[in-house]
Design a protein that fits this description.
It is a single chain. With 265 residues, this protein is of the alpha/beta class. It is built from nine helices and eleven strands. It has an eight-stranded parallel β-sheet with strand order 10-9-7-4-3-2-1-11. Strand 2, helix 3 and strand 3 form a beta-alpha-beta unit. Helix 2 packs across helix 3, helix 2 runs parallel beside helix 9 and helix 4 runs parallel beside helix 5. The radius of gyration is 17 Å and the shape is globular.
Length: 265
Amino acid sequence: MFTKLWNGKKPVIGMVHLKALPGSPRYLGHLEEIYDLALRDAEGLAEGGVDAVQIENQFDTPYHIGSEIGAETVAFLTVAATAIKARFPELPLGINVHLNGAIQAMAIAKAVGADFIRCFNLMNAYISNSGYIGAAAPELLRYRAAIDAKDIMVFGDFQVKHGSHAITADRSLQEKAHDIQTSGADAAILTGRATGIAPDTALICEIKQGLSIPLLIGSGLNAKNAAALWQYADGAIIGSGFKRDGNLSAPVDRELVKAFIKLIR
């Protein structure tokens, strides 16, 4: 499905970071403004030339985890995703629900006609800044089958940023990446240790050699390091790299998007 969706091209997936939604501590009101800003960012990404857009509730910190994620989060994310899909129907769409809301993301994706979801922890476990995160894949892949959503791809991280992975420290990154593959995921995602930090080139190459599914760079790719990293990955998810000075709270800068797409193509 991955190759078919993008006709064999390495996809650049641009991020739409929703401002804090109702029900989260930082929500400031003005719901329609949140939707407008999301559409504006999606427009900047689309006009800049990305191959897909992924939407997530980035500013709902501190995050609930998995089954604790409220129905309100799902509802408002669905409305935002529906608006983007309606405005850009030909642009592939992905869903990510913080934190590790894989079931919720799959339900939203099925409802709005999205093409993929991202899950921070498909297999194994880690300690996030919101607490313990267990493996989502056993329930998620069964849920995908149960709601007839097998055409929605699952992209899974295997040592995601912003977390402690000491509880699985006796297993190598290569083993964890292989677990993503054996779980039935459609692509694996490798990040650096934090937002805006890219993974090491040698590590990308080493992990890619052991995978038969695509490997995406999930953080830190930008115009400055693209020459060193892009050739070794099968695509990338870019958020802060498309914002002025890497400021996550800033709007998408379409000129940065255009410059990056021109550089790698």
